[in-house]
Amino acid sequence: MRAVLLAALVALLVSLIGTPFAIKLFRAQGYGQLIRDDGPEAHHTKRGTPTMGGAVIIVSAILGYLVAHVITDFTASGVLVLTVMTGLGAVGFLDDFIKIRKQRSLGLTARTKFVGQLLVAVGFALLALHYVGSSISHVSFVRDTAINLGAVGFVVWAYVMISATSNGVNLTDGLDGLASGSSAMVFAAYVVITFWQLGNRCPGTNACYTARDPLDLAVVAAAAMGACFGFLWWNAAPAKIFMGDTGSLSLGGTLATIAILSRTELLLVILGGLFVVETLSVIVQVLVFKLFHRRVFNMAPIHHHFELAGWPEFTVIVRFWIVAGLAVAFGLGLFYAEFLSHEPLG
Predict the structure, then answer these.
(1) Helix (H) or strand (E) holding 219
(2) Any residues with CB less than 8 A from the CB of 169 and at least 6 apart, and which?
(3) Helix or strand or coil: residue 169?
(4) What is the pLDDT of residues 169-206, one digit of tens each?
(5) Is the peptide bond before 301 cis (omega within 30 degrees of 0)?
(6) How far is residue 248's CA from residue 20's CA, in Å, rounded to a whole number?
(7) How many whole angstroms separate alpha carbon 272 and alpha carbon 171?
(8) CA-CA distance, 11 to 225, in Å (whole number)?
(9) Full-prediction pTM beyond 0.85?
């Protein structure tokens, strides 16, 4: 427990204190955010706000993890999660850097970003199969199901999860503090889940969990949570800095890999319910427009729909945070209810 608390505290302090220095550095370098012309008019005032702040989140989380390991051991699971965080952060950094250098709202091409995510996801999947074992190829909800994808199937499944989650967080990152605050909530849920798994490992309980390194996963989740909260102090409306794709892609990939390694893959769909809603809104908007040449929403992702409908930005952010919190609470409730279902009555 001390390692978990230490990781969260160090990451929080590094992010909280380090972000102002990043703001000054990025502003001096001219690393300012570009704003879509077709977006809400209120967003045009944000043009030039320093971006790529996700780099601070990544550095803070890694430092928190490293300091915590003064009193605990490194494991393959923890290192794998941080490798994915760093790898997708690098993909996002390239995307942000190209946007800034070429002064356009689009950075890497969709194909190039796809290749970057594919390389990171496949690398993670192969290493996970090697270090965690073939049992990881089972699809999981709160624990492993009977569905075994096999080695090849697991590689594909890992890519789908990492790509979908990283893109989901990326789509959510459109309002000040929305993605960082929502991600912090999901990471907090995973601190609880993985620490609970640590106390109920096989053998010895009727509801045993088989995650390989639950304590180290709790340390990683705590470090990421602390880094997000520290960054949120400066990212909350009106934002002094944006995380950019550097942050959103890395945070989404981190959540996906924690879910895979903690054997709670499908539970992430519920815990990250807000990210699912944001992603589905884009899919529905695109499909309906292609089929019927009509728009379902004023603008997608859905948070922009409510802005264009007249909701103040801060109202949208807080209400979407409430949705994210409810999804996390419901997911944790399902996790605990499933645990109780395996415990003997009385």
Answers:
(1) helix 214-235
(2) 179, 183, 248, 249, 251, 252, 255, 275
(3) helix
(4) 999 998 999 999 999 999 999 999 999 998 887 655 55
(5) yes
(6) 19
(7) 13
(8) 8
(9) yes
